[in-house]
Structure formats: C-alpha cells, structure tokens
Amino acid sequence: xxxxxxxxxxxxxxxxxxxxxxxxxxxxxxxxxxxxxxxxxxxxxxxxxxxxxxxxxxxxxxxxxxxxxxxxxxxxxxxxxxxxxxxxxxxxxxxxxxxxxxxxxxxxxxxx
Length: 112
Hints:
- The chain is 0% helix and 51% strand.
- The chain contains no helices and 11 strands.
- It has strands spanning 3-7, 10-12, 18-25, 34-39, 46-51, 58-60, 68-73, 78-83, 92-98, 101-102, 106-110.
- It is globular, with a radius of gyration of 13 Å.
- It starts with a strand and ends with a strand.
- The model has no long low-confidence stretch (mean pLDDT 96).
C-alpha cells in the first residue's frame, strides 16, 4: 500500500522560505515521477511542480518558477519542495502526488 506523508508547512512572513518534504513508503520510489500540487480556499487544486523518475527533468508552474525548486532523494524515499521568496498568494494546502495516491496535505500560510 502506497503512503505519502507531507511535512514542513507552517506560517511564514512574505519573502520567507519553507521546505516541504514528502516521505513515500510501500512503493519503489525511483520508479515513478512525482509532483506537488496546491489548493487554496475556494480554488481548484493546481500543479505546482513535477519531477521525473531519475530527478533529471523538472517542471515548475509559471507562478512559482524561479522561487520554488522540486527535488528528490532516492536514498531517503523523499520528495522535497524548497519554497523561497514566498508570497501571500502562495497560501494553500500543499499535496504530494504519486500516480493516483495523494498525501494528507500540509498547510502553508504566508502572512504578515
């Protein structure tokens, strides 16, 4: 059974940084591409970033490009999202995704 557990969310001021983690279990981690999504109140869930199986190819949504970086550590079965220069509009619940499996989400709130 595949399980994804996110961590690292919290409250941060505009311009600050956070690093999200997603620990995967029950799956051959290096065999799958993975993604981060987010959902703000009253909005649809949107793709934030994605990474290929080997970590060599990444995608970042235009709204976060240059500020967020997705990466993965195969030795730790963990997916990361480094978020810098955070903006109020980045406030959302962030979800880790692998195929049809989703984590429980971690809240990121950017506010002064």
